[in-house]
């Protein structure tokens, strides 16, 4: 009996959706590597310059500080047509500000179980998150009001990604999330076939429909570093695709609703590279992190990856960081620019483009990319220090910045920094 015939019979019992889900929900998504571009990059030779050499636009948007809106730093940033939606790990709260920086709404954590991230559905204009370790998904609108909630678990839990981080949505009803190197053995009754893959595709209700980027049995339970705000998933520049990077790997993948494509393969100098057998050699199994701590020039991951025109913007994972760990690579000229070698000037109002006084940029880097612009943040401490240091420059600040310095203090919220790269670097 074919699928159509079975479907007709089961429709009578109202079971068609269950059948379709079980048949189509868990297909393998292969990797297409036929068009991968190999790039040789030496971070130690990255150039620097002034802000005006590389950026045509620099805007600082102070975020309004009130008793309700006060937060620590931006751990996650999503940008809509009208709002900045922010997750602050310090307070485990989601905050919503207008594009002018005015406080709009706040979603608080529960006392017993904090919010750890959120998903944004730009089509339905809803923010999804969990306050109870993914037993329940709560949906709020952009005013911070609850509009829906969905219970996860129960009989269908094996088909849900409820225990994974938030979904990155391609459309109103499809998205994906990254998994970990699960240590569940295939002989276990709790094992699911998608447990051996790093990418899991699901609909907006966290029901799985596919998986990809498998890892081997030998890599099961692989010891990985906490990347401290470095994101393996980043915006592609369009809503229907994302960039993704694996731990201990120098490749960048493009994830779309039904495909995984190997887009770029980076080759770094030997001194900045992991051993070729870093994953396959079992001698590293118990000391991979210790090896990276000892070899603190080795690049162990690529994160915060964006593309604007011919420019690739990314962060190299180096233990302890470096002045060359945030790079801009031009595909046309082969030029490599070190973000931290770019000096403030008139175009940036002599304000910093990364937090030299604090830890915000070193822990977060470039946060987002939208409409050809890069987004990061600068702490109030960094902003007011620069303001004081440059008092003799007699800088003419935009009205919003002038008011910020007139009425604010180092205890205020950070400012969002918007950077537009020049077309030709």
Largest pleated sheet: 6 strands, mixed
CATH superfamily: TolB, C-terminal domain
| CATH class term | Mainly Beta
The percent of residues in helical segments reads 10-25%
Measured by DSSP, the beta-strand proportion falls in: 35-45%
Can you name the CATH architecture? 6 Propeller
Taking all Cα atoms into account, the compactness measure Rg is: 23 Å
| Alpha-carbon distance between the two ends | 62 Å
Quaternary structure state of the chains depicted = single chain
Mean pLDDT metric? 86
User: In total, how many domains does the architecture comprise?
Assistant: 1
- Number of beta-strand segments: 28
- In the predicted model, the low-confidence regions spanning at least 5 consecutive residues are 1-25
Specify the overall morphology: globular
Kindly describe this structure.
This protein is mainly beta. It has one domain (36-421): 6 Propeller (Neuraminidase). Helices cover 13% and strands 36% of the residues. It contains seven helices and 28 strands. It has helices at 3-12, 16-24, 51-54, 288-294, 360-364, 380-389, 399-407, and strands spanning 27-29, 31-32, 37-40, 47-50, 55-62, 76-79, 83-88, 93-98, 103-107, 119-121, 126-129, 136-141, 146-151, 168-171, 174-178, 197-202, 208-214, 233-235, 242-244, 251-256, 259-267, 299-308, 311-318, 326-330, 336-343, 368-370, 373-378, 415-421. Strands 2, 3, 18, 19, 20 and 21 form a six-stranded mixed sheet that branches. The protein has a five-stranded mixed sheet with strand order 1-17-16-15-14. Strands 4-25-24-23-22 form a five-stranded mixed sheet. A hairpin with a 2-residue loop joins strand 14 (168-171) and strand 15. The chain is globular. Residues 1-25 have low confidence and may be disordered.
